[in-house]
Specification:
42% helix, alpha/beta, Rossmann fold, single chain, 9 helices
Length: 212
Amino acid sequence: MENITTIFWDWNGTLLDDIQICIDSINIMLKERKKELIMPEIYRKIFTFPVKDYYEKAGFDFTVEDFEKPAIEFIDIYTEKLVSAPLFKNTEEVLDYFKQKYFPQYIISAMEQKSLVKSVNNRNIDNYFQKIIGLNNYYAESKIDRAKQLISEISINPETICLIGDTIHDYQVAKEIGCKCVLVANGHQNHKRLKTVNCLIVDKIKDIIGLF
């Protein structure tokens, strides 16, 4: 990582520990539909992007209802619970580490833009980031285009960027834009799934410090 000078952070599952509230939210919806609830170990096996695929794996049937209905329903429930989601332990220590090294830091997330900014601001860590970039909708689709747009806006060589995330999609984004990637294995996907891609994996966010 000696050539890295800039950090792109994922938000949900990397800096923000929202795994349990995601499980609780989806289970409320599954219970209403009389579907089997999912446990944390199952959730981390099936969660994926786009989230429509994850919903289908969780038991939703989009032949009887449109995807948009549970997608919006989830956001309503999740937003109510979001205030209780903490940052992962040592998150501020790691952010401060990169700040002291004068690494510009950005957030690039599949969360809706206004909700993302509010979520970051409410945890009083917005001062660490040059920009906070989310999507313009609530459907948690690919963030590849937003990442490409950000690189164009800041005119930076992708080879000097490391994207730090918690899902295979983060690796796919990094590969698409041509930057390095590190995945943290205590987020929305388990270690076994992350090992299916050719990427450096750490167990927790504090382990990031030893790499730079």
